[in-house]
Amino acid sequence: MNSTGADASGVQGDDHAxxxxxxxxxxxxxxxxxxxxxxxxxxxxxxxxxxxGLIGPREVSRLWERHLxxxxxxVPYLPQSGLVVDVGSGAGLPGIIIGMMRPDxxxxxxxPMERRTAWLExxxxxxxxxxxxxxxxxxxxxxxxxxxxxxTSRAVASLAKLARMSLPLLRHRGEMVVLKGRxxxxxxxxxxxxxxxxxxxxxxILAGETVAGVEPTTILRxxxx
Length: 225
Prior knowledge:
Blueprint: H1 2-23, H2 25-31, H3 35-48, H4 63-72, E1 82-87, H5 95-101, E2 105-111, H6 114-126, E3 132-136, E4 148-153, H7 159-166, E5 170-180, H8 185-188, H9 192-197, E6 204-208, E7 217-223
Parallel strand pairs: 1-2, 1-4, 2-3, 4-5
Antiparallel strand pairs: 5-7, 6-7
Enzyme class: transferase
Family: Belongs to the methyltransferase superfamily. RNA methyltransferase RsmG family.
EC number: 2.1.1.-
């Protein structure tokens, strides 16, 4: 009983700290004009995310640090204009965040699960994201349907599998810009064969920094030949 109470107290403390972070001026400045929309989206995700199977119970208390800011970290590495495809968009991380921060980009969210596409469509409608389009299905079903300027994803698959899913969606010289774990360097060698088949550039591992005190996100970027 004591351990359960301590754990609950810790989660509540984390939740309070995360809410304070989300309301802080550095976070407001980082997201700029998109802050209001992103805060609203985060609030809805906090309220409904676990119930609708979009995020795990432990993630509710760290939405800003681990999910919203994490997703926003990819935005500086995206092209200045054009089409961005988010593979396995799930709860809309990072695709919805990209759509809110970059209304100048066209964003397509590809997600195979019906309950998640329903959620994404609700979010797109609620925030009138006219630049965002939701497609239900697996990425492989859309090979040849797009010539994207960039493809992104977050915690979807190993690099080898992700490359097979994502690279056919890109135009020549388009970029795959994905959010990965800190051990992504270990995924590069097993992916060499598929990367060579698309004549990609050498993968770059980049630090996606957001606000002071928040751990940078690991981003991997490569260009299709």
